[in-house]
Structure formats: structure tokens, C-alpha cells
TrEMBL record:
Domain AMP-binding enzyme C-terminal as annotated: residue spans: 518-589
Start and end residues of each AMP-dependent synthetase/ligase domain: 74-454
Protein name, UniProt field: Acetate--CoA ligase
Keywords, ordered alphabetically: ATP-binding, Ligase, Nucleotide-binding
PANTHER family: ACETYL-COENZYME A SYNTHETASE, ACETYL-COENZYME A SYNTHETASE 1
Amino acid sequence: MKSIYPPEDFVEKANVKDPAIYSKAKENWIDYWESFAKELHWFEPWEKFFDDSKAPYYRFFVNGKINASYNCVDRHLKEKRNKAAIIWEGEKGENRVLTYFDLYREVGKLSNALRNLGVKKGDKVGIYMPNLPEAVISMLAAARIGATHVFIFAGFSPKSAAFRMKDSGVKLLITADGYYRRGNLINLKEKADEALEEYKGVENVVVVRRAGNEIDMKEGRDHDYAELVRKEKAKSECEITDANDPLFIIYTSGSVAEPKGIIHSTGGYLVHVYATSKIVLDLKDEDVLFCTADLGWITGHSYSVYGPLSLGATVLLYEGAPDYPDICRTFELIEKYGVTVFYTVPTLVRMLQGCGNIDSFDLSTLRLIGSVGEPLEAENWLWLYEEVGKKKCPVVDTWWQTETGGIVIAPIPALTPMKPGSVSKPLPGIEVDIYDSGGKKAKPYQLGHLVIKKMFPGFMLGIHGDPKAYVQLYWSKFGKRVYLTGDYAYYDEDGYIWISGRADDVINISGHRVSLVEIEKVVKELREVADCAAIGVPDRIKGTAIALFVVAEKSDDLAEKIKKKIEEDIGRIALPRLIVFVKELPKTAGKVFKRAIADAVIKKEISGIASNVEVVKKIAEKIDKNA
Ligand code: WT7
């Protein structure tokens, strides 16, 4: 595939156009990162940039004192007081604009209210909310007083929410009465109440009135958000937090049964998302950034909140479904708010291709398009470049993970020739590699494990409450200095990186990580199920979908029961597209041999390695009948 060079108009105005940035970062790694850090506000400077004495726990900006809320809000008051910080649109088209001064007042008031409710530095504050300005305010209010926020995606079931709250030890929860999704009212407070039945550690619940639906308010526990903040003063001192105090915990799926709470730092994380918003998303003062992720995922944390707000940019926050009332809604939003930087996931890109009349929208404000979350195929890359950006916008495919906090591999838009389908090269100051199973560098086109060899400030502090898993999942295959990402990738002849997918028991549905082991565990809990195996199968829109193989006496309602259980225990995101009842699962050495099932289903190949190969053949036949 030939390279596409960054459009000239773009290059002229880009934040970074000197290719020496790569060599400079290599020669002086510390200076490189410190120069970004110095652009932020610190109460006290750090004593040491990097500490690896407790590897694989790496620390940056040791003993530096910084507050994330101060940097995202107060720092901008002098020059950007009346500038829009957040432009919000609800699904029905209602909108609100919050200037930096508004944000300052709202964050200050809520942080004072939280303090009055007894929240202290180090306490965990849960946020169970859709994309509302109050969700951003809640994050920044918690950060302001040194509390750690634990955002729970609103689409998660009460059980998942309870698990996350319990695991992290949430003390106070901020939620909303309800919200709209594809025109339907979702009663979120009811879900929160259900979760709080299961986890009793929450002393106070703050409820944002968003939809006005009828809800139960529990005396002494539940507080109306508006009433609570009305009495509070806007002025609120920022807690002097340490660079390595946790800013937030966010849950993600791994190749273990339960979701893991990834802990992120305050200083290093902020520096990383600030730097990458500047060099990869090329954010400038006049930009309107539309990041389509939900705030409940890391992408929302990093590129709808901490990155752009620490830079003082304007963020467009959309609450509803991207395909409501139709698939062109995203283009409508870009036109309406003059979006200049559009950051999205391949699943949405594939959906957007269904909007027939793209040229009836004025998308001329766009100047950069970014993608994250799953492989962006060359065909979709080209469509973005030609049809959406009209060849005037670089398209940056950015690779990173919940664990990395911010972008790790991506083109620098004005510098790196782009190859559709490739994530290009690691950012300056970061070193990655591709290893074969023995730890040797892979040759071009040889599929291997994507690893990170040089740490960077955005990297996680650890896994909440599970240091064993931290070491075992990421640092056992290649040692304490080489981070295992869990992805397979290969180099091409120019050293460009191509991501092929997960190497572990995790799949990627519409850019969200789903653990196959977690699904299997939940399904096996049903009395009727003797055994089961979940695998990922290609899906035209979502990238991957789930096929579930269940050993059970088929009964009329078992499939429905399984679906209900998955929806309740995990969420709709983990629902299988296909459930197949089988008599037996293929095994090797007593373990379910999932690759044999995958090969039979996807490649139509029968693997002879399974001890009971007949079973594999039966599965293949069944799929043929089902297809
Ligand atoms: C996994 C991380 C980072 C925010 C969203 C997802 C996959 C991520 C790309 C990309 C191909 C990608 C990887 C990774 N992934 N970006 N540009 N091309 N695959 O965060 O839920 O932590 O998932 O998403 O498999 O490991 P996450």
C-alpha cells in the first residue's frame, strides 16, 4: 500500500512539524517529557522524572504536586474565561454550553458539596452516568478534592455496577434519574438502586435530574444534585495532590473472569494526555473536538475530558445514540457545531458509510480525523480520507489501551506519511517492539506479540486490589521490563506497525473490550449449562461478535435464559450473536480447545489436534446449517 502524505494546508498550521522531535526525544527522553509537563501548572515541581526502582511498578514526576482539576479549569480562567469548554447536545437535540467560567463555578460548587458529604482525599467516588456535562463536572470535582473517581458506563447492568463499586470501595455515588437512548427513556436511578441493594458501602447518592422521570429518593441517602449545589460557594480550594496519587480507577476486561480496576496517576497521566492531544490530535485554541466515545470508557476520560480541557480546547459532548434518529446524526453534529477534530471508532465509521447523502452536510470545518479502539481497515481509512475529509484532513489511526492512559502508537499528522490500515510508529519518547513467543524481534510480516519497552508517563499505576494479576497478566511473559500488550501485530518492510487483534481471551466488539472468560463464567453459573465456550467471530459492523457453544440439554427457553443472564450480569455489549447447543466441546489435555472451534467456524478448517475431533466436525456442520 502506498503512503499518503499529509495535506499541505494542514502541515502549515500544525502544532508539530519538525521531524527532529523523534531524534530529540530519543537523545533526551527526560527533557522531551518534561517540556510538556512544564506547560502545566504544578504546586511543587517533581524531584525525579522517572523511578523504576520498583519495576514493574513505574513512577513518573516523583514527589511533584499537581491538581488535575486546577489544570483543566482554573488555569484557563485568565485568558479563556468566556470560551466554551463543553458544548453538549442531548439525543432530542436540546443543547447547553458551559464556558470555562461556568465549569469553574460548577466544579467548585459540587466539590464543596462532596466535601460536606464527608468525601476526603483518597476516597472513591462512583459516577454512573451517561454523557452529561454533570458527568464531566463530577470527574473534575472529585479530582479537585483529591478523591479518586470510578466511572461506570451507564450501559452496564446493576450487577456490573455493583461489582465495580464494591471492588474499588466507592463511598459516594453520583448518578442521574434517567436518559434517552434511541428515543427510549432509560431509568438509570432504578438501576443504581438495584446495584446499591447489592453493594451497601455507599453512604450518599447524588442524583442529577436529567430526564425528569419518576424515581425513588431514599431519605438520608439520596440527594438532589441541583438542590445540593445551589447552597454551595463556587470558590473551592484545590487539594494539593501528589503526581502519583490516583486520579481515577477504570474497569476493563482482561483474560481473567473478572474485570480489573486499572489505576491511573494524576501527574503522569495528565502530562501524557495533554501531550498527545497536542501532538496527535493537533488541538489548538480554535478547535472543537468531537470524541464520540462514552465518558465511561478510557477514551472519554482522556480525549473528552483531561486531554482537551487541560489544553483549554472546546469539547463537543453528545449524549445519545449516534444512529438516532438516523445514521447521519453524527454528520449533523459536525456541521451544527463546526467540529474541526473528529475522533471516533471504526465501528462507527462502518455504520456512517450507510449515510447515503453525506454531501448534503457541510463538513468543511473538519481538519483532522482520528480513529481508535479496533483495527481500521484500509478501505474504511480511505473512505474517511476521501469522502469525509475530502483529502484535506489527515486520518490518524491511534493505538493504545485502557492501561496506557493515552495514545502510544500513531502518526504525527504533519510528519508521518500515512499508510491506510497501519497505526504507523510509536510516538516520540516511546519504544515498542514485536516479539515472537521466545522474545526475539519478529521479522517483517511475522505475526508476534506487541510489547512496550520504554515506559511513558500515562502508563497505569497498577490494578486495584490485585498486584498478583498485574504482574501475571502483563509482566510474566517477557519479564519486568517488557510490557505485554495482549495484541498481535506485525511490521511491514518500512517498520510500520499493523495490528492484527488480541492474542488473549479478550475480544473487541465495536471498540470495547469483552472478556470471553467472563462470559463463560456467567453462563456456566446456570444450572442447566454443563459447559460452554465463547469465541469471537467476524462481524461486518461491530468488527467482532460472540458465538457461544453450550453443552446442555436444549430446552425451549434456555437460549433466552442465557441471554438474560449475560445481559444482567455483564451488559448488552456481551450478548452473543449466535448460540449453538452441542453435545460436547473439543478438548486437548482436558481443556476446552477453543482454537479448534474458531477454526471450524471461521476458517472452516477441522483441526486434528483435538482429542475428540468428531466433535469439531459436528460443530462445523451445525454452523453450516445455521449460517
Ligand atoms: C485494545 C484496547 C484505547 C481506547 C479504546 C480501547 C484494540 C485499540 C487500536 C487500533 C487496532 C486497536 C487493541 C487494544 N485497539 N486501538 N488503533 N487498531 N486495535 O481501549 O478497551 O483498553 O482496548 O483495543 O486490541 O489492546 P481498551
